[in-house]
Fold this protein.
Amino acid sequence: MIGLLTSNILIGRPLEILLAEDNPGDVRLTDEALKESGISYRLAVAQDGIEAMDILREQGGRAHVSLPDLILLDLNLPRKDGRQVLTEIKNDSLLQDIPVVIMTVSKEDEEIFKSQGLKFDSYIVKPFDVAQFYRVIRLIESENFDALKKFLE
């Protein structure tokens, strides 16, 4: 099932976000944090890895539908886990430039990803600090990836 949530605060073009998350509580928390951040956004929700890839491939194959500006990716997804989804995204020439923020329960996962050669733009440890989440989203929205990497070091 694909859910679409839209903020009430529309300032310019909304940030298109794909959230791949199977936990309804984390979906609500993410949506609330986005609302409180004040950014304009549209949030598409995929409840498993297969659905996330279906959404991305469907959007990528339709000229009038834009790809997301950002992917928030939980690692522990059913049917296809986040690591597999991340690998597919980064190996697809149409999708590889979309920023991916990993949502994980352990900061140690960053080192594991790097050692496995997985490429991601940022990560957020769950349960996430709302202030840190705001900063990550704002930096991505402004496409300030150098500042984002420094912030997360």
